[in-house]
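Figure 6 in text form: structure in, sequence out.
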């Protein structure tokens, strides 16, 4: 969907991809390193989980809504598929790895769980950045 004027769907997909990438990079660079060093860990993890949950709902809700709108709009080019794929990678990694790992971390931090969460977070960050790159190319290309 490239051309001289952007559709509302393109603008929203780009905006949600940028929001997602910014959120995910912040979590990777600032939030998780501080969380995983926190002492005592249990109360810090509980505060983190309560505080970040509404933000996760907004960010991933925006991705689902704009991704669905983009799919419905049709005429998907390769860059749009990359944008949707990056978001899907991050979302699936969140649902299948990060969220269950947080559930286990609620019972206590271990080195293995911290490594698992950190690896999952890197995958999510890669997905978010890939999604943003795809959205940018779809709009600018």
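Output sequence:
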């Amino acid at each position: 969907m490239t051309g001289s004027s952007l559709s509302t769907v393109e603008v929203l997909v780009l905006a949600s991809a940028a929001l997602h990438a910014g959120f995910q990079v912040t979590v990777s660079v600032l939030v998780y390193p501080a969380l995983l060093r926190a002492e005592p860990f249990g109360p810090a993890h509980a505060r983190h989980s309560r505080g970040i949950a509404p933000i996760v709902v907004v960010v991933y809700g925006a991705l689902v809504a704009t991704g669905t709108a983009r799919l419905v709009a049709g005429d998907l080019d390769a860059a749009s598929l990359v944008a949707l794929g990056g978001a899907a990678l991050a979302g699936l990694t969140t649902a299948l790895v990060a969220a269950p790992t947080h559930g286990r971390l609620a019972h206590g931090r271990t080195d293995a769980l911290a490594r698992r969460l950190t690896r999952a977070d890197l995958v999510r960050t890669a997905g978010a950045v890939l999604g943003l790159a795809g959205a940018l190319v779809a709009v600018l290309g």
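Caption detail: The two ends are 9 Å apart (CA to CA).
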